[in-house]
Amino acid sequence: MSIKILLADDHRIMRDGLRSLIAKQAGMEVVAEADNGRAALKLARKLQPDVIVMDINMPDLNGIEATRQITAELPDTKIVAFSMHTDHQFVAGALKAGVSGYLQKDSAFEELALAIRTVVANRTYLSPKIAGEVVKAYVEKLAVEEAAAPVLLTDREREVIQLYAEGHTTKHIAERLNLSIKTIETHRRNIMEKLDIYSIAGLTKFAVRKGLTTLDT
Questions:
Q1: Contact 60, 36 (CB under 8 A)
Q2: If you ran DSSP here, which 8-state letter would residue 124 be given?
Q3: Torsion sign across C-alpha atoms 93, 95, 100, 104
Q4: pTM above threshold 0.90
Q5: Domains of the chain with CATH codes
């Protein structure tokens, strides 16, 4: 059975080119074309294609908003964003909207064919440059969050929270760190106030999320 494809791009020459190239691919067929996001949405509802090759910038209804609505209504329809934009804001917006693939318009057609087959197999496809931008943005986001974090635990507090997370009692922690029980209780109180978390279970979740422990020990 052929992969049914809907082309959504406001440039006729782009659609004509893609249609011609897809026609040469075994097991693929273009079932319709749309020149704006709203038309793509309407056709998607009617035809329920396997894949939509979606331009991000289109009139009337942009590709990201069209993707959001289509994926909400037709979860089995996969969308490959096809755009000139490589900025991580566009990529992030498309991924949040529900695209299964993202590649540049200057990519070779073979890459688009690969992307289509990849998303049909329920996997995500990002072209190498796009994948690099996604990773870079993620690392930068982590760095910003870390730098902007209002909570700064001391080395000793991080030790204490890890031990609590691993199930040790206050007495055992005091013995392990060679400190008094009162000092450990003070550390615990300070930690809870800094984090605005007032339960051991909550501290445990925080410790795992921040990589202080994996609870596998």
A1: yes
A2: -
A3: positive
A4: no
A5: 3-141 (3.40.50.2300), 155-209 (1.10.10.10)
